[in-house]
Write a structure and sequence with these properties.
- The complex is a heterodimer.
- Chain A is mainly α.
- Chain A has a single domain (18-143, 155-452), classed as Formate dehydrogenase/DMSO reductase domain (Formate dehydrogenase/DMSO reductase fold).
- Chain A has 18 helices and no strands.
- Chain A has helices at 18-30, 35-61, 76-87, 89-100, 110-130, 135-141, 159-196, 199-208, 216-249, 261-287, 296-326, 330-341, 345-357, 365-368, 371-398, 413-436, 442-448, 458-461.
- Residues 453-465 of chain A have low confidence and may be disordered.
- In chain B, helix 7 runs parallel beside helix 18.
- In chain B, 26% of the residues lie in helices and 20% in strands.
- In chain B, the strands form 14 sheets. In chain B, strands 5-4-16-15-14-6-7 form a seven-stranded mixed beta sheet, with helices on both faces.
- Among the domains of chain B are: 12-60, no CATH class; 240-382, Dimethylsulfoxide Reductase, domain 2 (3-Layer(aba) Sandwich), CATH 3.40.228.10; 561-697, Barwin-like endoglucanases (Beta Barrel); 716-1027, Alpha-Beta Plaits (2-Layer Sandwich), CATH 3.30.70.20.
- By secondary structure, chain B is an alpha/beta fold.
- Classes of the chains: A mainly alpha, B alpha/beta.
- The interface between A and B is large, with 52 and 58 residues.
- Chain B: It comes from Chryseolinea serpens.
- Chain B: InterPro entries: 4Fe4S_Fe-S-bd, TAT_signal, TAT_var_transloc_signal_dom.
- Chain B: Residues 763-793, 830-861, 862-891 form the 4Fe-4S ferredoxin-type domain.
- Chain B: This is Prokaryotic molybdopterin-containing oxidoreductase family, iron-sulfur binding subunit.
- Chain B: It holds the Pfam family Fer4_7.
Amino acid sequence: MQVSSVVRDPLVTGGKTVKDVSHDISRQVEGSPTRLWWMAMGVSSIFFAFGFYCVCTLLWNGVGVWGLNKTVGWAWDITNFVWWVGIGHAGTLISAILLLFRQRWRMSINRAAEAMTIFAVICAATFPLMHMGRLWLGFYWALPLPNAFGSLWANFNSPLLWDVFAISTYFTVSLVFWYIGLIPDFAVIRDRAVVQGNKIRAEVYNALSFGWQGGAKTWMRYESVALILAGLSTPLVLSVHTIVSMDFATSVIPGWHTTIFPPYFVAGAIFSGFAMVLTLLLVTRVVFKLEDYITIYHIELMNIIIIVTGSVVGVAYITELFISWYSGVEYEGYAFYNRVQGPYAWAYWSMMTCNVISPQLFWIKKIRTSIAATFILSIIVNIGMWFERFVIIVTSLHRDYVPSSWTMFHPTMYDIGEYLFTFGLFFCAFLLFAKFFPVINMAEVKSIIKVGSEKVTADTHDTHH
Amino acid sequence: MEESKKVYWKGIEQLANNPEFVKHAHEEFAQPGPEEDLGHSRRDFLKMMGFGVSAVALAACEAPVRKAIPYVNKPLDIDPSIPNYYASTYTNGGDYASIVVKTREGRPIKIEGNALSSVSKGGTSAQVEASVLSLYDNSRLRGPFKRGGEKKEKITWEDLDKEVGAKLGEIAGKGGQIRIVSNSILSPSTKAAIAKFTAKYPTTQHVQYDQVSAYGVLKANEASFGKAFIPSYDFSKASVIVSVAADFLGSWISPIEFTKQYAITRDVTEEKKEMSRHYQFESILSITGANADYRGQIKPSEEGTVIVTLYNLIAAKAGKPAVSGGDEKIKYAAKAAEDLWAARGKALVVAGSNDKSVQILVNGINDMLGSYGTTIDTAVTVNYRQGDDAAMAAFVSDVEGGKVDGVIFYNCNPVYDYPQGDKLGAALKSVALTVATSYKEEETGAQAQYLAPDHHYLEAWNDAEPKKNMYSLGQPAITPIFKSRAAQESLLLWAGEPKADYFEILQSNWKTWFYKGQGDFQTFWDKALYDGVLELPAEPAAAVAFAGDVNAAASAIASTPKSAGFELVIYESGNIGNGSQSNNPLLQELPDPITKAVWDHYVTVSPKDAKDINFSESITKYFTIAVEGKSVKLPVLVQPGQTPGTIGVPLGYGRTKAGKVADGIGVNVYPLVAMVNGSLSYVLNNVKFDKTNEEYQIAQTQTHNTYMGRQTVVQETTLAKFQEKHWDREFHPTVSTWADPKHKVAPGEMAIWKGHEYKDHHWGMAIDLNTCIGCGACVVACNVENNVSLVGREEVIKRREMHWLRIDRYYSSDAPADDWRGVEVAAENPEVVFQPMLCQHCNNAPCETVCPVAATTHSTEGLNQMTYNRCIGTRYCANNCPYKVRRFNWFKYHDNRQFETANPAMNTDLGKMVLNPDVTVRSRGVMEKCSFCVQRIQAGKLTAKRERRPMNDGEVVTACQASCSTGAIVFGDINNPESKISKLLKIRPADPERPHRVDKITDNPRAYQVLEEIGVKPNIWYLTKVRNKDKDATKA
């Protein structure tokens, strides 16, 4: 008998029992991949392979294969970096902040969102590596490692160094948080494998679950750790993009040098992160038949977050424009005039349309609860957020102080190839995750379906108050 | 316990200790085995095998052997790592500069001006600076060649001399005609050698021509003064200069000299608030016109009209009869005449026209203004541009008519650079003997039977007489790299001299000509060699009487037909010049001072005539230019300042046999040059100019042309304003403080940094925008000094040129400064400003804080320094540089076949000899930028330290400063109140208590810092540009 609340609709529909939860989610891991999965994997692998060729060419020949020049020293590389880092925000936000705020609706989506975070951060991290002129030295010189060169040390003044710490900390904490959440679920799969007599799977998942036995004390510790990690992650959600924004905010370039960046970037990151979570989950719930776990209610809540953060971002854009005029600084003024009117105006207006105007459609309940509309808008938001970073980076650099150095930036095949590389990487990783790991946190979801001993059907549901 | 006394032994032999046993006791086996019998032990075998295996393995991975042969006995005057300097002479046709060559370990690596010469006065040009790389040009001839049919074969000098001698004898025997063809020859010893040759073969005629002729000036002076000569001009004495299409700062007659003189008149200080006023009337925008105070736009066909107008206006004031013609409506003509007349005796009028009639009138004007004896010296005649257009035309028709049997081309290339070159080249096939002596094969050599390569000038002894009684010695700075031979020696050997050593001949010439018996000859010679110049007292200026027929000249001008179509100007660009050095990538990648184009040939068109070309990002269309039956196709470059209805095409492109660098770029426009009234004319009428649909992208280093009214970048004023009492710059950025918004302070005063303190030196630089003419010599000098990579056309199109120092060229706009769309467009006839831009060595450097690995840091002497080894190439520093002077190594530019053509100095064995060993060749993926020539600072400091003395001011000169003919760049220690820069800037410490603090105040009101309001505190100050304009005549 399922116990339903008077005031709240159930977060998981379909009258699922504890057993159903284990079954619905574990069967993805246990069964063989579907044809759809193989097709998706094939496409992702092609992207990955082509991108990998571009990456190899870049590393072999030099950063010159990109379209950068003397004036525009960063373009798609750092645009993609910031974009991916931004996407990587939703996972931890959902897991940590919503955990602290006891938002239980997060339970169906946090696993996938965290996985997305991890893969997005990996994709993001490839760009700072690839954009370096001398990767073979840079990947460790940027770390404050002891060396034999006396005072030779990293420069702690540099926001790029802060980035190294911010991203690596965020990645580590997210990974640990994610993995700890996976442990009880791995144990479920192991237990089922033992029953099913699949020895190899039993062994593998036993190892992955660190031999989890599910004792009451273990659960207690598990929950304490989750809470501690949530506490640790919460400031990281805010700090990572704050620090990324400081790459720009601490510089002297008009359009970069602005104090509004930290909150503006964090809002933008959450905005794009939720959009990406929606994109992925809308596909996952259909492919893996998880409509009962990821419901319209979840989608609506996330859409509301998108309205809020999208509006914050919109206010930030308008504030920037206002300040550029109000400050009376000629260069600042021109930088924004150039964004709105200059040769990259098309990028600016793409950004404005995608990020500020389109999310406002979610005020309409019909759109907010429409799966097709949500899917399209979530992609539009991510396009818009890519343009936001492109606008900030390229249009600020290409016309800065000294007009003799003004240039345009033209991307090459390798700029595009490296972006596709990260898409290939991301989707390959996400598909592998979806196949081999439980995509929904079974342990937590079980806590929100309050069940009696018997299964209820939809028509009897209303009578049991 | 009693110690055991037991002894064990191996056998009875040990006990007996017999000698046989003792002998083998240390060996492995008591009994010798079979291998020992062979004399090799098993261990030896293993050792040998181990050695063998590792030796084979090592040999397999050994690098190819590169020959580096140390000196067996160290030459007395060559110390490794210590440079030697030799005074020498640069001559290239009629171009001249007295120079000092820096050599390292026997290799010339840098050229600087020789201040002891009163002709070039230490000045150089981009061509002179770049010529050191031409020495290491891979397309040089490795030795003498003979052409059998189409193929050229190696030949020995002995055989060549035998064959040429025999043929010459044969020609002379039957009375055939011999010609020696050359550009203007400055060398008296060469002329003597030619005279000897002519004495031996009396049918020989020496024909001189110049790529860009000044024959009209010669003829005009003959008509005016009875003698064909070119006088010395002295712009430094002129307070009003009027130039009608004479690009005297870029290419006309002797630009290095004129630049020096001109700068003197343009220099203003608070004490000397006077400068010359310069009017320029021209069709193309030349570097000279860009520096003018007033620039009138005229068509080439109006050059004569302007001169006639000026003549009549001045004649009216002088009370002389007017001549017919002229047009008083020509803008600025009346004003120019007014100023000229007011500045009588301190005025100078020059014209670039090669038309005798125009030049006669110019002489007439100068005569009325009293320029002869003041700004023009007819006694000290110059020897540049002595080419005789008539003689050359006669020579070509003689060759065509089969009247010439032998031709020797002495270091010239008329097949390429003479208008009738095609005809000449074709006709040479039927000449019995053709010899070319140029150090490269080139287009003319390709038509010659014998190639007898001369040395490059840096390998050769030579002398020069650029001006009457001003002599100059050229000494070799390196042993000839290839089997070349002095051309003078060749001529003398062919003339039958049994033995000819040009050095000895030169020395004995000088002994005969100049050694007057005072002291010992060796001392005299050594002094001349050390100084590089020998200047005899100038002859006193004789009074000249102008006797030109101005009326005839004026009517000749009046009869010039008006043009129906477009008018074409063929000119020498500021980088490639006349094309003789176009295979030099340093020049190909030097942005033209005006168009900022590199590696490309184009036709300049006024914005009005190119309305349908949207010339953004250098993307343009091809146009066809058809004139007098000839047609060429070139991409259009939209050029503000170009007179509507006119087009301009630079010379020097369209090379076919110059070498890998130059071949195939553009078209040769020498054939378009016409012969008008007996002299070559570089302007053409009735040109058909039609658009094609073929697209092209020109490589330009600067595509945005205006400075957007940003006074923090460029500050300028007019002389009238500057002369006011208590003049101050119009623009002083200030910021409000937090405490009191009404209290405004200079941006530098607000800082969260404590600021550096430089206890010892504090290096700084001042750049005078008023004297910088934008020529670009400093850019080449910087490239050579600092091993700056050249990257080629494709990479420049991607906007990746590596120049550490660039010259920003800005045009004024007619729009008000707050119309951001409007000020992006240059004015029709813009004012131009040149701004050398290099690392500003900021004291609060934005690049330093953002580098994650501290690869760019601040020195204790105020330098912003790059540690290439530490750089990981994030490019954050370049993004954060407000001046955009940092350059990234996008690719490996050295030892990379992709860049072999563009950058031979780092990709060919021969080219690498030019690299400066004191400066690292940067690897792929690292950032680089101007270092203030830190290697020179270190060398200066070490010298001072070794000599136990403080450094003197002027001891360290940066490469750009050294090359700057106008002295616009001053570098030095601003901690030293006695240094030139301190005095120029009138610099003093902001806090007298702590004089070594970074904060300094400049009391020179012209001094400002670019982008002062960002608070980065640069160590470079710019001096405000002053235009000699009337007060109300300022533009945005």
